[in-house]
Specification:
Elements (H helix, E strand, L loop, with lengths): L16 E4 L15 E5 L2 E3 L2 E5 L3 E6 L5 E7 L2 E8 L7 E4 L4 E6 L7 E7 L4 E3 L14 E8 L6 E7 L13
């Protein structure tokens, strides 16, 4: 089954990263992120995730067959390595290139996913209904942007008032 586009009844799309691209101040990431990527049932788990820049992705496979992790950033390979079917094996990979990376398994071309390497904690990942929330954004003018493993990016200016709420409802294309 292809889980690239998961669309809610009202048209919302799951697994879209919505983020502030140009925020220069405010909160920091809370604690150390310890992202994990498992290959289970010939699917990447989680299918899409957001990780902090310079964090270390812990890669493993729960399947009894060979897989590989091949990630692309803007069409260029960033990560490409085999993950043998070895219980308990965890392969750490430092993530030092910001932005959305598409994932695919070269052994099983139907296995896809992605992760977004964030430079700041001002992001949301859309849920099953296509909604998201970015909390505690300082007042200011920013660029809000999206990333999806297969859809084109969107971005537009957005103004956030002190103590206020701003809304962005982009159309995935």
């Amino acid at each position: 089954d292809d889980d690239t586009f998961e669309i809610a009844p009202d048209g919302g799309v799951r697994n879209v990263v919505v983020y502030l691209a140009d925020i220069k101040s405010g909160k920091k990431f809370e604690g150390e992120m310890k992202p994990e990527l498992d290959q289970k049932g010939c699917h990447y788990q989680p299918h899409v995730q957001v990780v902090a820049l310079h964090s270390t992705l812990q890669v493993k496979s729960s399947d009894p067959i060979l897989h590989n992790v091949h990630s692309y950033l803007n069409g260029s390979t960033v990560i490409n390595f085999a993950v043998p079917p070895q219980p308990g094996l965890v392969l750490p990979k430092k993530l030092d290139k910001p932005g959305g990376q598409q994932l695919k398994c070269d052994v099983h071309n139907f296995m896809t996913g992605g992760f977004f390497v964030a430079e700041n904690p001002y992001y949301g990942l859309t849920g099953e209904d296509g909604t998201y929330e970015i909390k505690d954004v300082p007042a200011g003018n920013y660029t809000i942007a999206t990333w999806h493993q297969a859809a084109g990016p969107l971005s537009e200016p957005i103004a956030v008032a002190a103590g206020g709420t701003a809304t962005f409802n982009g159309k995935v294309k």
